[in-house]
Amino acid sequence: MLARKELCMSHTSSSQRTTTTPIVLTIAGSDSGGGAGIQADIKAISATGSYACSVITAITAQNTQGVNGILPIPLKMVEQQLDAIFSDLNVQAVKIGMLADSDIIQLVAAKIRHYQPPFLVIDPVMVATSGDVLLQQQAITTLKTELLPLADIITPNLPEAAALTGLDIPQSMADMQAMISALRNINPHAVLLKGGHLEQSRDSTDLLILATDVIELTTPRINTHNTHGTGCTLSAAIASYLAQGNDLTTATSLAKRYITAAITAADELKIGHGHGPVNHFFAGHHHVR
């Protein structure tokens, strides 16, 4: 069954809030340019009304034009960060992005099994917006077997979905729909297959693939070069809305609206000379005088 859901452009805040500030942990790499990775996650989580904490898995020398270097964080330090967070903070949702290598993936998977956070969102980061490779094939295999099955939802873009399934990169909506069965085999709970790479389409349509249903989430396509960190931002927003008590479909729909509005407002920023970041705080900036 294929349901279609048109999403308005306006940002809607969560209507169902917990009595304390929702805490979201992001586990990802640092982007020195501030547009993607941990930096984008913290901005998105904060802008959508939750408290962000972080575990850094790698440091990247990166800007809007590309990735100049990657330094994985020592395994012991990743473990210490994870234990420090979970031993003190009541984490309602975890978002996982770049994990750098197989050893870090295995460690994070073991800690997720141990601490069992209520919600887990995984953005299977493999390639940067600039095209730079962020995860090698052996690590992709480890990601598929050790970590992705633990997630409540994974959020691959089309090249990432092709790498995970072994299928060709989709060139049409029909190709995206043909991936549904293979993606369910990777994660039977939920997959958000992002259609942003179908640039010939006038709309941006993502497929929310649930166990027994598929929902199209559609917004108008925005003509901009400022798309750095869109995947990080979307997955972090999903985790934030889940932490606030929304169900998976609602959280994903709200996050889709949020990222669409952030991309729409991105040209206001004028950051860098390449693929600029989205405008996470499009709703307004508050200045203390």
UniProtKB/TrEMBL annotation:
<protein>
    <recommendedName>
        <fullName>hydroxymethylpyrimidine kinase</fullName>
        <ecNumber>2.7.1.49</ecNumber>
    </recommendedName>
</protein>
<dbReference type="GO" id="GO:0005829">
    <property type="term" value="C:cytosol"/>
</dbReference>
<comment type="pathway">
    <text>Cofactor biosynthesis; thiamine diphosphate biosynthesis.</text>
</comment>
<dbReference type="InterPro" id="IPR004399">
    <property type="entry name" value="HMP/HMP-P_kinase_dom"/>
</dbReference>
<dbReference type="GO" id="GO:0008972">
    <property type="term" value="F:phosphomethylpyrimidine kinase activity"/>
</dbReference>
<dbReference type="GO" id="GO:0009229">
    <property type="term" value="P:thiamine diphosphate biosynthetic process"/>
</dbReference>
<dbReference type="GO" id="GO:0009228">
    <property type="term" value="P:thiamine biosynthetic process"/>
</dbReference>
<dbReference type="GO" id="GO:0005524">
    <property type="term" value="F:ATP binding"/>
</dbReference>
<keyword id="KW-0547">Nucleotide-binding</keyword>
<keyword id="KW-0418">Kinase</keyword>
<keyword id="KW-0808">Transferase</keyword>
<dbReference type="Pfam" id="PF08543">
    <property type="entry name" value="Phos_pyr_kin"/>
</dbReference>
<keyword id="KW-0067">ATP-binding</keyword>
<dbReference type="InterPro" id="IPR029056">
    <property type="entry name" value="Ribokinase-like"/>
</dbReference>
<dbReference type="InterPro" id="IPR013749">
    <property type="entry name" value="PM/HMP-P_kinase-1"/>
</dbReference>
<dbReference type="GO" id="GO:0008902">
    <property type="term" value="F:hydroxymethylpyrimidine kinase activity"/>
</dbReference>
<feature type="domain" description="Pyridoxamine kinase/Phosphomethylpyrimidine kinase">
    <location>
        <begin position="31"/>
        <end position="279"/>
    </location>
</feature>
